[in-house]
Write a structure and sequence with these properties.
Layout (H helix, E strand, L loop, with lengths): L2 H18 L3 H18 L4 H7 L6 H5 L3 H8 L8 H7 L1 H4 L2 H5 L3 H7 L2 H23 L4 E5 L6 H4 L1 H4 L5 E6 L2 H11 L4 E5 L2 H6 L7 E6 L8 H13 L1 E12 L6 H7 L9 H6 L9 E8 L5 E8 L4
Parallel strand pairs: 1-2, 1-4, 2-3, 4-5
Antiparallel strand pairs: 5-7, 6-7
The structure holds S-adenosylmethionine.
């Protein structure tokens, strides 16, 4: 038996017992912090522990009763983190509160984690940026890459008051774009189906944008692709235009649980890693690079303003 199992098995047993006794918050805290520690202490045996122990333990059945964990693990659209999953996180924004309170306890715990709160704040930060750019520029041209259901559009005053020239909602997932079409079908928002690989191939597809942003995509891109995407997004901007990227940081305490029970593997970046994404852009082309975190410190944002002169 590996050392990871000697510590890990009692952790899974204890968490199982607590969850069975309806001590959900205590059980989930124990599980999340414990798995995070095991992942840090035993990086070489972690994958094997996940497959050989976590996923064979009866605990799996209990945590999979959460619709959020269940969907991430089973990936009905073929990938984790689809727009429906994001709606589970935004639940208080898009679902009537009475419906949420009747849902499963593990899901309620997940909704209240700082990681999910950070994702809700990410939506507000994007909506505020859309509004800021709309105050600076009349009828701005905006591109959202990997838009999902474009929920920030429901939060943005400029979108609601139709001050946007055009907002292109770009995503690989047709079903998500159909939701965007029905939520905003007013000519202002233009859904376009496409993938990151297409953007990398056809670099000139979008140009003269006032704002280009992407939420929840860079966490899936390895560093060389993320660097190329950063450059491509920058080239889409008009002089003076703004772009926003964001990535989960390694501080997130859910990481072990996400990998073990949600089968959700992300690439985590800190401030240094984010700054490294700009290495293909000449410093003098950028008027300002601002790197900041959300108030829960789980996400690292990078906002770049393009210089007015080339
Ligand atoms: C985590 S969701 C984020 C959705 C939305 N931006 C939000 O923050 O709620 C990730 C989105 O990226 C899209 N996506 C993932 N890989 C993609 C790719 N290679 N090309 C285009 N879209 C992609 C998915 O379809 C999904 O809608």
């Amino acid at each position: 038996m590996y050392a990871i199992d000697q510590i890990g098995q009692p952790l899974l047993d204890d968490a199982y017992e607590l969850l069975n006794d309806s001590a959900v918050s205590e059980g989930m805290d124990k599980l999340m912090f414990g798995l995070l520690k095991l992942r840090q202490l035993f990086p070489h045996n972690w994958q094997q522990f996940v497959r050989g122990s976590c996923r064979k333990h009866p605990l799996k059945k209990i945590v999979h009763e959460s619709p959020f964990t269940h969907r991430a693990f089973h990936k009905p659209r073929g990938y984790a983190g689809d727009a429906v999953m994001m709606d589970y996180i935004y639940a208080s924004d898009v679902t009537p509160v009475e419906e949420i309170v009747t849902l499963n306890d593990v899901y309620q715990y997940e909704l209240a984690t700082p990681g999910c709160a950070s994702v809700r704040e990410r939506l507000a930060i994007a909506a505020n940026l859309i509004d800021r750019v709309s105050r600076e520029v009349e009828a701005p041209r905006i591109l959202s890459i990997a838009c999902g259901h474009l929920r920030e559009g429901q939060r943005s005053r400029a979108v609601q008051t139709k001050e946007i020239g055009e907002l292109i909602a770009f995503d690989q997932d047709e079903k998500s774009l159909a939701v965007v079409e029905s939520a905003f079908g007013n000519g202002q928002i233009r859904p376009i189906k496409g993938s990151v690989s297409e953007l990398l191939r056809d670099k000139g597809q979008f140009q003269d944008m006032d704002l280009v942003y992407s939420l929840g995509l860079f966490d899936y891109l390895a560093q060389p692709t993320a660097r190329r995407m950063t450059r491509i997004m920058f080239d889409m901007l008009k002089p003076g235009g703004v772009m926003l990227l964001v990535n989960f940081s390694p501080n997130l305490y859910n990481i072990g649980y996400m990998e073990a029970y949600m089968d959700w593997f992300l690439i985590y970046r800190d401030e240094f890693d984010m700054h490294q994404l700009t290495v293909d852009i000449k410093p003098k082309q950028m008027k300002k690079v601002r790197i900041f975190r959300d108030s829960y410190k789980n996400l690292v944002f990078m906002e770049i303003r393009k210089a007015k002169t080339r």
